[in-house]
Amino acid sequence: MNNTSNPREDPLPFPLFNQRFFNEFSQDSKLIGHLNQLMLHLNHKCSYKWINQKKSEWTLDNDIKILVITWNMHGIIPGYSLKRLFNIEQIHHDLIVIGTQECSRSIAVSLLCESKGSWESKLKEELGKNYVKVQSASLNAMHLIVFAHVLLVPKIKNGRPYTLSQGFMGIVGNKGGIAISVTINDKIFLFANSHLESGQNSEAKRQTQFSKLETHFENEVFSSHKNVPYDYLIWTGDFNSRIDQKITTQTIRNHSDFFGWLSKDQMYLSRNNSLNYQSFFYEGMIFFPPTYKLLEYQNQWAIGNDFRIPGWCDRILFKEYKQQKTSSTTQGFIENAPLQIKLQNYDANFDILGSDHRPVFAQFTVSFQ
Asked: What is the pLDDT at residue 2?
């Protein structure tokens, strides 16, 4: 892959967030200047793949196109259209997976009222008659839902939800995770969503939470699918990863160092140091500003009394089950790319307001050949 100031023009698949690509892109002076300006002014404009490409009837010769979204909603249901998030009229996806945290209500209120019926109704309205709900799962203020295009629905079976609480005494669901497994043409897809411990100094606890969630969901899928493991796992969430650096309100106003901050991302550091965290997972290279903490209705850093050190909290990870058994790693990262599941795009949508987070999305293709 050649260095470029516009990585979205490169051939597919999308570059991965690992040591190789980090070193490559962080040496590109033109790209550095571009990303520093995006982060300083928060004027990032996302891009989607497959705009205005015609869809055809699904067969085994087609790759499945998947849109995956993660968003901490800060206790709201948007009163505005989400067309700019899904782009239904311009892009065909076979599966749409939406993982949300602090969905519909605050965490405290969700302890008493967990229903996400109003949010699911809005999603159905936004996606229209061509998309059908396959399965959903809820835990406190977390929600995960899978929609399938009507052409793919006949190939889907065995939708099952899973939950694991990791809040107070392991009972309260303010932290923890949820997951959904579905079978498509005899391949088991596992989609997970988590909201991990917050705080600048809580990375070790987040590692432990993630490890327990992964083990729990793997065991649940193995049991419910007659002792067959999943084939593909895509994980959304508010991982609450922070930048491990002292950043002040004055710094944010006057200084921008995109790759300097990204090199101090706690998730990146954990994987780079081969810590027991997200073992054998992939993530796309990050070319968007931190998605937390921003003003709710303006793309500006929240620098008032509720100031937080910014973070790429909202992330999407993925892996293939079979490959993790045979892959080797270097500096905590997998050396060889996944075989069947391909990341085609990874971005954040700063047009979607109302929360102190901005949604992150990924586009995947999965081949059945």
From this structure: 39
- Check if the beta carbon of residue 238 is closer than 8 Å to that of residue 196: yes
Number of H helices, E strands in the chain: 10, 13
pLDDT at 214 exceeding the cut of 90: yes
In sequence order, which residues have a C-beta less than 8 Å from that of residue 134 and are 6 or more positions away? 146, 147, 148, 153, 156, 159, 180, 182
pLDDT exceeds cutoff 80 at 105:
no
Does residue 6 carry a pLDDT above 50?
Answer: no
What's the length of the chain? Answer: 369
340 vs 355: CA distance, rounded Å: 35
Cα dihedral 349, 350, 351, 355 in deg (nearest 10): 100
Encode 32-69: b = buried (16+ Cβ within 10 Å), e = exposed: beebbebbbebebebebbbeeeeeeebeeebbbbbbbb
Distance from the Cα of residue 69 to its chain's centroid? 6
Q: Which of 92, 96, 98, 97 is nearest to 62 (CA)?
A: 92
- For every residue of 105-137, DSSP letters joined together read S-HHHHTT----HHHHHHHHHHH-TTEEEEEEE
How far apart are alpha carbons 1 and 12 in whole angstroms? 10
With contact defined as beta carbons under 8 Å apart, do 357 and 291 qualify? yes
| Of 72, 83, 61, nearest in space to 110 by CA | 72
Higher per-residue pLDDT: 327 or 341? 341
Give dist(CA 263, CA 282) in Å, integer: 17
Structure tokens at 167: 């809040």
Neighbouring residues of 5: CB distance < 8 A, sequence distance ≥ 6: 28, 30, 31, 34
Higher-pLDDT residue of 363, 339? 363
Local structure of 36: helix, strand or coil: helix
What pLDDT band is residue 127 in, cutting at 50, 70 and 90? very high
Residues 6+ apart with CB under 8 A from 87: 48, 51
DSSP helix, strand, coil percent of the chain (3-state; round to 5): 25, 30, 45
- pLDDT confidence of residue 256: 86
Would you state the pLDDT for residue 7? 45
Task: Considering only residues 113 and 16, tell me which one the structure prediction assigns the higher pLDDT.
Answer: 16
